[in-house]
Structure prediction request, 424 residues.
Amino acid sequence: MAKIAVLCFMAGALSLTLKKDQPTFAFLVSTAGALILLLSAAEQLRPVLAFLNTLKNYASSQSFDCLLRVLGIALCAQLASDFCKDAGMAAAAGAAELCGRLLALLEALPLLQGLVDSFLSFLS
Amino acid sequence: MLDTLGEWALQGVKDPLRFAAQAVLTLSIGCAAGLAVSGGWRICVEATAVLAFGTLSLSAMMDLTRLVGETASECQTYLAAFVPVYSGIALLGGQTTGAAAYSGLFYAMSGLMCTVIQSVLLPVLQIYFCLSASAVLWGGQGLGRAAALFGDCLKWGLRCCGTVFTVVLGLQSALAGVSDSAALRMGKSVLSGFAPVVGDAAAAALSASAASFHLLKGTLAAAGVAALAACFAPVLIRCALYGLAFRLAGILAEGCGQSRSGQICALYADGAQLCGSVLVLYAFMVVLSTALLLISGNGG
Prediction:
């Protein structure tokens, strides 16, 4: 955690230094810092993901897979939107959020369809 | 016998355990997902988690209600073969009224109960599950109240069936208990009084043959009850375990801050218990009526 804090501080300081004269490089430094932090978080999560994989072999279901995909879409869309806001592109950020929400809705559609099919089979 | 008992236990335990594992996994991922994202995405991910859990729960309950209906139907098919044989043995043992009550009144009642379970009680239970899931997923007090209404209707239906069963059992007991014993005693006294030399021997032979038929009837009743227990036990274990799985999942959901999933767990735990109640009522009706015919003739 200390390493992550130091990395955040260094990336922030470098980005602020470059922002006035070289805004492009400041954006690249900020993006690189965010990606490095995400990669280190993913490394920490590796044992948890292995445990979930073991459980998934025993108790796999469509619901669980859909939920994981929606979570992945949410994280990617949130990240893309934050990158766009950092670059000063508010419209692109909004568009990225909208795309993410539409994709999440498409992923959740099989769940909704399964639920409606269950209702119809009961009520028929 | 231990292998058979093990197989029964496995049949009843496998699916609820699998469901419990899937529920814990889905709720844990839902909780982690809610923590990982922020802002508007949290609402989106939490709604998907509730939808995933609702779909999983509804699918499990759909299978359970179908299984309860099939079990009642299988039992009725078994009774179609068992009742004529058992009442025939009771008839040979001198229980004419008891046998008639068993093969007529009880068999008709069990058929009616099976039809009521499949045509009325289980469909009401299925509607209850659908409305409960809808009420939690889409909100609105109207859907919640509708689900509660169907739950109350089911409980009222079970109470009515229980009352009718009590009346039938009482009738069967009244018809079978006294008259058959009195008829057998009258038969023996007529024999010993009418035939001066061999009358006593004939009366003793009548008692011996009645006793042997009582023994055969007892063995057959024990075998029948054991077969019915084998039919009902795995499904009853399954209902109890599903109820327990939903209660535990509800505790986990409330602890993780997923109140909507917790609501689904509470409603579906009640539904699983109602499934078990339907089957218990039918099982008790069949077993107690069979046991009554066994007990009522043995005092003669």
